[in-house]
């Protein structure tokens, strides 16, 4: 079956611009996660959805970052007024259960965001 | 707050067994230990998870001593395609939903 997909695979933007990154989770997975990975580092948690609601957004670095999952499937990560420090790979993951993050999470290939 | 420590890098040769040890001194009583693998330009992939003693699957084995303060991921007879970053993870809290990654261990398999 299809895995987690993310679009675009690469996004280059200019400082100050707005970007949207999309995640299509595995069908039927109720839990969806966004992570950010900088070069040489492990992924860093941003936000977790259980169904349509953001159950934990404690990892979002500031109010320029926002994510939605209106129908409990596809999710969009939105970044306003991008800064060069936002450059990273943004990873999406989904899992079939939300009761524990240590149930297996399935990751997409990521979107590489470059802010010039 | 649980935290893991693992070697930054390891080298091995094809056909050898590789053991990567992770320390997690503050692991909580009910927490599982999970390992993920990440190839360049890909998202991490679940390898194995365990609570105590030994767990084995088609990819790896996980050894956990009785005190659970460390764990060892064992990869039998590695090949060049096993070159990747390996992450040892434990929950940051009992209610944690998200995975908390450290910097991982870069395993390089040489011919």
Tell me about the largest β-sheet of chain A: 7 strands, mixed
Structural class call of chain B reads mainly beta
Total beta strand runs of chain A: 11
Biggest sheet of chain B: strands side by side, in what order?
A: 1-9-8-3-4
Runs of chain A in which pLDDT lies below 50 for 5 or more consecutive residues are: none
| Protein structure class of chain A | mainly beta
Integer average pLDDT of chain A: 93
Helix content of chain A: under 10%
Report the uncertain regions of chain B.
none
Q: How does this model look, in words?
A:
The complex is a heterodimer of chains A (116) and B (111). Chain A has 116 residues and is mainly beta. Chain A has strands at 5-7, 10-13, 19-24, 31-37, 44-50, 53-56, 65-68, 75-79, 88-95, 106-107, 111-115. Chain B has 111 residues and is mainly β. Chain B has a five-stranded mixed β-sheet, with no helix packed on it. The mean pLDDT of chain B is 92. The A-B interface holds A 4, 31, 33, 35, 40-45, 48, 50, 55-56, 59, 91, 93, 98, 100-102, 104-110 and B 31-32, 34, 41-46, 49, 85, 87, 89, 91, 96-104.
Reconstruct the topology from this structure:
The complex is a heterodimer of chains A (116) and B (111).
Chain A: E1 5-7, E2 10-13, E3 19-24, E4 31-37, E5 44-50, E6 53-56, E7 65-68, E8 75-79, E9 88-95, E10 106-107, E11 111-115
Parallel strand pairs in A: 2-11
Antiparallel strand pairs in A: 1-3, 3-8, 4-5, 4-9, 5-6, 7-8, 9-10, 9-11
Chain B: E1 9-13, E2 18-23, E3 33-38, E4 45-50, E5 53-56, E6 61-64, E7 70-75, E8 84-89, E9 105-110
Parallel strand pairs in B: 1-9
Antiparallel strand pairs in B: 2-7, 3-4, 3-8, 5-6, 6-7, 8-9
